[in-house]
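The aim of this short unit is practical: by the end, you should be able to scan a pair of folded records and say something sensible about each. We start with the first protein, listed as its amino acid sequence and then its structure tokens.
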Amino acid sequence: MTPEQEEILRAMKTRTTYSIHADALKGYGDRTLLYGYDVNRKTWHVYLMDGEIHLHVYDHNRITITKRSDRFWLDAHKLMPNKRLYPEACDFDFLQILRGNGVQITPRTTFGGIGSNTLERFKETGFYGEL
């Protein structure tokens, strides 16, 4: 996501359906959709792989707190961390889908605030977070 794309998200009108289906992301390929953290400093990595939306929440020691996947999420709000997003690691198309379904987009860190280890992981795997 870029600063210009962030402004588009802010201006979007929303619905109240709150659900999202992996089919809405067909044709985009496997990738990170959203990467951020919550108030307890747990990392949130939402990604698309093999036609399913995956949520992986883990701590600093990479110990999994939550890991689940599904083709259809009834509550899209459960895909958004409650603290911050790393904007460079978030997929703009996915954020538009969330915003269009009534999800308030979490505030972001500054652009360029993502760590070098995370960027290296992306270069090696195509994903920003742990799978």
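Turning to the second protein, read its sequence before its tokens, just as you did above.
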Amino acid sequence: MYNVFVERHLPIALKLILTFTILGTLFSGYLVVVGLFGGSCGLSKGCPLFLGYSACWSGLALHILSLILCVLIAKDHITFKNGLMSIVLATLLGIGLSGYFTMIELPAFMQKGFGAYALGVPPCFFELVFFMLTFLTATLASAYERDHNR
């Protein structure tokens, strides 16, 4: 898989999307693993639930989906345009979910301040940032692709 990204000239947007996606996958993967073995979220005392599972699982699934889409684009299994639109949709869902879970944890943050969480803000907020960076990059790349490849 590494050779696909090194030997072929890939757009900088795809490299940025891949970077944000890998970082998001590592972060949510850490939270999931700590949650499995520690019984709670890795960076806070509790963790919001989504469909009965820790919210980190949904973030991990969406980051892995974006990662798979990046690989499919790089290997020319799907077009750049279709892959970008799929990534935009996946990250839009991720923004909605992580934004919702961040809002749920907002009262605890407002009451206790930065001391309420290990990194100062809810872990879902960091997920929100990763999803927003990926979404912004994919949206801009999609617009550029549309305008320059007519």
